[in-house]
Amino acid sequence: MKALSYKTSTNCLVMLATLTVLVVSMLLAKVYIVQQYQHAYTELSHNILSVRDDVFKMEVSNGLDYDAISDALVGTERHVQQLQKSLLPENLSIVQWLLLSNPQISGHATQLSASVTALVTDLETILRLKISQEYSNHTIKLLQQDLWQKMPNSDDRIHMIGQTMSFPISSLVSPELAKSNSFKSLRRHAQILAEIKQDISLKNQQILNAKVRQDINEQGLFWLSVVEDTKQSLLVSCMLLVVIFSFYYRVQLQEQTRKERLILQSLTASEKEKDMLALVAEHAQDGFIITDKQGVVTWLNKGFTTISGYGLAELQGKKPGDVLQGENTNKEEVDKIGRAMRAGQSVASEVVNYHKDGTPYWVDMNISAVTDERGEVSNFIAVERDTTARKQMQEDLAQAVIKADVSNKAKSTFLATMSHELRTPLNGILGMAQIIEPNLDNPEHRKQIQILLESGNHLTSLLNDILDFSKVEQGKLELESEVFKFSSVLEPIRNTYEPICEEKNIRLFVQNGIDEDQSFKGDKSRIRQVIYNLMSNSVKFTEQGSVSLRFKQGVNAEGKQGVEITITDTGIGIRQERLASIFDPFVQAESSTTRQYGGTGLGLSIVKQLVELMDGTISITSKMGEGTCFAIFLAITRAKSQPKTTTSKDTTPSNLPENINILIAEDNKINALVAKTFCQRLGHSVDVAINGLEAIQMVQNKQYDLVVMDNHMPEMDGIEATEFIRKNLKLDIPIFACTADVFQQAHDNMIGAGANHVLTKPLQEQSFRDALGQHAHLICKTHLADQISQAESCDNKVVALARHKKEELNITEADIDFKQLLEIHDNNYVKIEELVDSFKEFAEHSITQLIQAFDKDDVRDIHILAHSIQDMAANFYASRLHHLAKEVEAVTATDIIPPLESLQHLINLLEVNIHQNQRVIARYRRQNKNHQVS
To answer: Does the pLDDT value for residue 899 go beyond 90?
Structure first.
């Protein structure tokens, strides 16, 4: 059986002692209470016997004795009743009830009370009889006196005395005496007195024979026995308490013995530890020095001798610093050590010391202050370690880091330079291709331009992959955080790959299991980039079958909520042994893949790094000849607010005027021509500056609505020019920076200089249009308002709307998209000719109606005509015409006549498109005629 612990044993003994003390206290209280009752009943018995004796001895001579005895009887009866009631359970307190809850106590009290009550009743009867006896004696005495005086006859007197004394008399009563009423009364009272004496004698006998004395004795014995029993219990409890204290003392003694044994063991272990520490200190490679409180050496170990070359005999009684420190020792560190030791504090430091042979070496030292029992410093202990090798390693590592930084900066500089030098000519190639494409009618030429654009875009994609990989590798790729819906990610992907899959004759399945109203917060463009890369691979490597893209919400193994994306194809598949390295940079599934399908092998590596950067995971399963499945989990959070979705169209916003003044600052003539052509195709006026200095001069001489600023230019670059415009000229002209640098730092520098937007080369026409739309409120925030106010303040029209001759029109402003018309109508030129004729008829009629409505100031007719022109322009994909008509419609909706310039521009666009349509139809007819002749 397991022995009880010290704590358990002590607690048990304390509890037992407490209970025993409580019992002893209760027994002492019981003894006290019982003795009180014992004394009360003993006193009661004495009172009862005393009163009884007083009753027996009483002679009624006056009323005082009787009253005293009567009061004593009443008091005795009340006393016994009070004692009896006080012992009833309902009259006891809780403590008394616990101590006197013996039924015998209340039984004896009740029995004694009944006996005493009966005794008191008998004694009161005797008192009454004695009073009656006294009364009869007194009456007899009076009657005797009366008869004595009246009856002088001696015989009569003898009879009278005999009657009173109850003596037998032989003589007869005289007739005179017999007839006397007094004698008759005397005889009667004599009889009564005899009866009273007889009753008193009987009552006395009953009282003497009563059990009251026995009951009183029994009551006294009972209380005595209770006292004795309680004292015995008290004695037993005290003995038990002594036993408990004995056990407690023994337990304490055992615990003290155990503690002393542990202390002895601890002292023994401490001595062994001291011996071991002494052994360690003696043979350790680190140096140990002990000094007194003034820093004077008192002991050192062999390790210190090995490090410094000095032994104890050479340093004892000296301060270590006076011997070991030299010219290269850091004085600040020495002062720090001195201050700490003077303050009695511990200190750590690393300094140069000098060996006995004069060789410098580095030591890492920790000096600890040792205090005595009074808390005062008595010694210092210094532990020194030779760190010369580590210091040399740190210096070598620092040099290596510097070299790596230089190499990394060189790499970044090379990538930035390569990006800029490649993107600059690429901007010219793609820009001119975008300019030429809409003006080509020959399908073969269109196909060639498409190949040129696709190749250029592919080259741009390769550049982006290399730069993205470099950003991720250097940790410079920063994720954006915006609220979006997955429909804005899904739709562009669907629109991109549906025609590609149709062209390859493979099926595209897109399943979106995410609630359309659910918004998320994350980097939408990077998520789209991940899906684009994987979809591009799946479509590229799938010749037949299908490609599936599925979205759904899910939870990963860590319990994080997010989105699961699955991309499955039925392509060529990947061998199992290649799956482990498929996400490594510059790795493709097969070497033949590069030759057949192209690519750098960076796409999947970038995908994996982007996914992990977004706190996600990506996995792949594949089987040769059956296909591949990519499973992605992105831990993106749900967003409460709903983002406002906007539909991106291939047009500029309606609130941007058709003709704004734009300044292009570009030193490369080809890039300047591309940007100028983009602007002119949108109907804007353009000036070109060849450097930043010239751009600053031009913005001071002419009012421009927008500046497109290249970054790298001679004499003054774009950043300096932008800062000068903002800080020195204090102009708030919207500035679009344009650069071939794709690193975020370059973009941040241009934004920091004051640019409103950054365009990246190669410049895409759609990107330029989007930028115009995004910043339209800045570009023309007062343009339209000024024109409207001028129109309202001019009552007399000095210039009227008019038609123009063909040679006066700028044909480059024509914007009907014949490419889309031909695609929609399957290259049916007959149908196109019919549409062109209908457009000409509608446009001529609309021009006439506009001129007439303006002359009549008929806002309603202008509003209706603008709406009709807007619908027709939409059918012919004429974006500028559509938006200018929409702008006029918006102005007339407020019951205001549009500015003359806006209506004239609308008429000009209608005329330009009419003549351009005729040129296209004429060219088609010539080609058709030549084809028939050949």
So the answer is: no
